[in-house]
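Recap from last week: sequence in, structure out.
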Amino acid sequence: MDELRIERRDLTAPDAQRLIDALNAELSARYPEEGANHFRLEPDEVAPGRGAFLVAYRADEAVACGAVRLLTDGEAEVKRMYVLEGARGFGFGRRMVEALEAEARRLGATRLVLETGVRQPEALGLYASAGFERIELYGEYVGSELSVCMAKEL
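Predicted structure tokens:
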């Protein structure tokens, strides 16, 4: 596997924003329906003690990102997980999931939840292989025909 380092970054940092912009563009292409995408994540939600936003670097290139935020007692949520298209297939997504799980544990979470989409087979496969199982839709995703929610006990 290529060398990868994962670092905590501010959600508004240039590297973070480039990855988020790429993620948003890909999601908009996969889900062109009005109101299909849920892009909301605020910097305070990933502030120390409440969550984390991580960026993965191969050499000096930002190639992946992901966030974790606390929801309720014992539960945290994965958000904005993404690997650049040219960096896929090297195990970077798996490494990011592991880093987000570690951050969730540091925050005191015992369960990690997430939402992904029905048109993202790569994400569905990655999360399933990492031990996540499908659950009922929660929060803002209730009623969405395009969402798949998953959870993993930590």
